């Protein structure tokens, strides 16, 4: 009777079978709850970040536009997680979830590295990537689409644990994703260390940079640098879990470690949450989160912009002036 109730529960939630742990439905239920809660929080966090950027019209700044792209990728990432419960078969819904998930994780990584390298090139080489913003935006989103399309050539999108993603194939998972994720961590570490060394040298006077411009640059860097750091922190357990998947010969949906799956399920979708927390706790944003500032921002959105009209006053001709003078003479 107890088994029947649990079976009905999973049918109600859209998971007809729990092939991950068929003898322990409690583990499947825990994974399903964890995935739903964390993904929902990620969606809410991403929407909050986007809403604050739009509310205070901060999208006019280049750094804020990069955060917009990052938040959009995190939002799609959260949506991909809640498309279905724990997958039981390789159907159309599974492939939709897998492809959206692949697209969003690629976009997140590319925009994170865009922020990291933007900081690096500005400090070390005095190159502001703002001048290349349009072409970079096109390239990063297009590259995410291309990478997402590649696995369709080999039917590589299949059930992969608590969600659908790339099947447990080292060539696909590491060649298309984890090698690049690990490489990005190494590159991020190098760029941040080199950036910090360069700033310290400039403060000691090794480079001829004014204190005012250096302080302004450091303030913007401090705002942006937190996002790559948070991204790589929440990706520690997903990387460990996928390494375990590669080390253990998984067959279909069996052989997974419940502990690693739970940790990945809890941390993987949390980037949208950490993104919103970092944005809200930033000094500039936090100072505006009060009733007066929010009311004023809403008022500016509701009010119509003032239009200034220019009227041209005709200049009298010389003949007209003479005529007027003659009339009064």
Please summarize what this structure is.
It contains 13 helices and 2 strands.
CATH architecture descriptor: Up-down Bundle
User: Which structural class do you get from the secondary structure elements?
Assistant: mainly alpha
* Mean pLDDT rating: 80
Number of domains: 1
Description:
With 329 residues, the protein is mainly alpha-helical. The chain has a single domain (16-289), classed as Rhopdopsin 7-helix transmembrane proteins (Up-down Bundle). It has helices spanning 2-12, 25-55, 62-81, 92-124, 133-149, 170-203, 211-234, 236-247, 258-267, 271-281, 283-286, 291-302, 318-328, and strands at 157-159, 164-166. It has a two-stranded antiparallel sheet. α2 runs antiparallel to α3 (62-81), α2 runs parallel beside α9 (258-267) and α6 (170-203) packs antiparallel against α7. The longest helix is centred in the middle third of the chain and has 34 residues, at 170-203. The radius of gyration is 27 Å and the shape is globular. The model is unreliable at 1-16 and 322-329 (pLDDT under 50).
